[in-house]
Design a protein that fits this description.
The structure holds two protein chains of two kinds.
Chain A: E1 2-6, E2 12-14, E3 49-54
Chain B: E1 4-8, H1 12-23, E2 29-33, H2 67-70, E3 73-76, E4 81-85, E5 90-93, E6 98-100, E7 103-106, E8 110-112, E9 121-122, H3 130-136, E10 142-146, H4 150-161, E11 165-170, H5 182-194, E12 198-201, E13 205-211, E14 214-219, E15 224-227, E16 229-232, E17 236-238, H6 241-245, E18 254-255, E19 267-269, E20 274-277, E21 284-285, H7 290-304, E22 316-321, E23 324-330, E24 337-343, E25 348-355, E26 358-365, H8 368-380, H9 384-391
Parallel strand pairs in B: 1-2, 1-7, 2-3, 7-19, 9-16, 10-11, 10-16, 11-12, 18-20
Antiparallel strand pairs in B: 4-5, 5-6, 8-17, 13-14, 14-15, 20-21, 22-23, 23-26, 24-25, 25-26
Helix pairs in contact in B: 1-7
Classes of the chains: A mainly beta, B alpha/beta.
Chain lengths: 55, 392
């Protein structure tokens, strides 16, 4: 499970937790999130995220 | 359970409310009315990537075009609401059509404030404002920006990046006066100057008038500046007229409680237009930032779908200027003491703003993770020394 951080605002997407607010269930891998998904906090593109930690 | 919800305003608050209602299992009709002809879009990039031509409108849509059908949200754009009858529970559209509701959400946002009326004046808030201004921001052209708040500063930085000669005028002694304490405002003086933007502060604008093919801005102390185009960026005015005419309580925005309820039954308000209780410091506030509008819309959408959780949030916003990512959280203006970690000079720092040792605000450049931690401390009313100890 990996964690990805938005480089614009610092929002963290944790694969273990998913993002249920937008129907992304816990355990969803980063590569399985649609490419047009945007940062829930600032609207940055998926491409603006970088992996920062293996957990 | 109500069977039709009408949402007036298809910005981030309105769309987020619709999405939250569906996620909460609301099965009634949702009618989303937008005045702009566009599919709903994210507004923050308008003064940045969009005006610079680095992104297209289709790259900043809030939801994909098919989302509305998939979620059974009836999106109607280019629709103006003329009035609301809160007793009959009817919204009257400008073309005469009537739309009945069981619940109504007013997410009408705001418009750019502009007390002047010269033909060279531009404002920037919507996608519709972009094409003309963009065509005028050619390399070497001269632009005056009135107001060095977030939008004015971003437009100045964007235009400078595009190769324009930029004059930036601000009433206060320093840029970003509503966000930054003086020590940090100075940083943005230096930043604008080092990037070649001609910043003047302490400028009380008395008039903006056309003079031939130039537009002239005059200040109370006799100074004046002229350019073909003047962008006025002196804040926004909440769109309260519909609510006011309907007899709903308005005072610096539409007055709501922690559940988004207005003074009229079954009428809610969310986003920039809502004057809401400040759940951390007490009192009331109106928040004009993207994330606040999104989260408020989401929270009030949940309430409208039957939830009972009040909305409490610490404001947070970001700004990109000349490639530097500024983030501000909390209520810096309520504080007197500043503790800086990192280097102001290198523009890599977080500054904690304290009131009697308690963290009330934080400002950072390039420190998003620290800002997020600070946001939690602010919400909890923690003292900085305790928070740092707990964090260590």
């Amino acid at each position: 499970m990996k964690r990805w951080e938005c480089q614009q605002c610092g929002f963290v997407y944790d694969e273990a937790e998913g993002w249920p607010e937008e129907d992304i269930p816990p355990g969803t891998k980063w590569e399985d999130i649609p490419d047009d998904w945007t940062c829930p906090d600032c609207g940055a593109a998926k491409a603006d995220f970088t992996m920062f930690e293996l957990v | 359970m109500a069977h039709r919800t009408v949402i007036v305003g298809a910005g981030i608050a309105g769309v987020s409310a619709a999405a939250a209602m569906r996620r909460s299992g609301y099965e009634g009709d949702i009618v989303l009315l937008g005045e702009e002809p566009e599919l709903p879009y994210r507004r923050p990039p308008v003064s940045k990537e969009i005006v610079r031509g680095e992104k297209t409108p289709d790259e900043i849509r809030i939801k994909k075009p098919e989302w509305y059908d998939q979620q059974s949200v009836t999106l109607r754009t280019g629709v103006t609401v003329a009035s609301i009858d809160t007793e009959a529970h009817v919204v009257h559209l400008a073309d005469g059509e009537e739309v009945g509701y069981d619940q109504l959400l007013l997410a009408t946002g705001g418009r750019a404030r502009n007390p002047w009326s010269a033909s060279g004046i531009r404002t920037l808030r919507s996608l519709a404002d972009v094409p003309r201004l963009q065509s005028e921001l050619t390399p070497g052209s001269h632009l005056i920006v009135v107001g060095a708040g977030l939008i004015g500063s971003e437009i100045a930085a964007s235009a400078r990046t595009m190769g324009c000669e930029v004059t930036l005028l601000e009433t206060a002694a320093l840029p970003l006066p509503r966000l930054l304490p003086p020590e940090l405002g100075e940083l943005y003086v230096d930043l604008h100057k080092s990037e070649g933007t001609d910043l003047h502060t302490g400028v009380q604008v008395t008039s903006i008038e056309d003079e031939g093919d130039q537009t002239t801005v005059r200040a109370s102390d006799g100074r004046s500046w002229s350019a073909p185009v003047v962008v006025v960026a002196v804040g926004m005015e909440p769109n309260v007229e519909l609510a006011e005419a309907a007899g709903i309580e308005v005072a610096n925005g539409i007055v709501v409680d922690a559940f988004g309820r207005t003074s009229a039954p079954d009428v809610f308000a969310a986003g920039d237009v809502a004057n809401q209780p400040n759940g951390v410091l007490g009192g009331r506030h109106r928040v004009e930032h993207w994330q606040g509008a999104q989260n408020h819309g989401t929270a009030i959408g949940k309430v409208m779908a039957g939830g009972d959780v009040p909305f409490v949030e610490v404001p947070w916003c970001w700004s990109d200027q000349y490639g530097h990512n500024l983030q501000v959280t909390g209520w810096p203006e309520t504080t007197h003491e500043l503790v800086v970690h990192g280097s102001l000079h290198d523009r890599d720092f977080i500054a904690y703003l304290l009131d009697d040792g308690v963290v009330r605000g934080a400002v950072g450049i390039g420190r998003p993770r620290d800002i997020r931690a600070a946001e939690k401390w602010i919400a909890a009313g923690q003292r900085l020394e305790d928070a740092l100890e707990g964090d260590a």
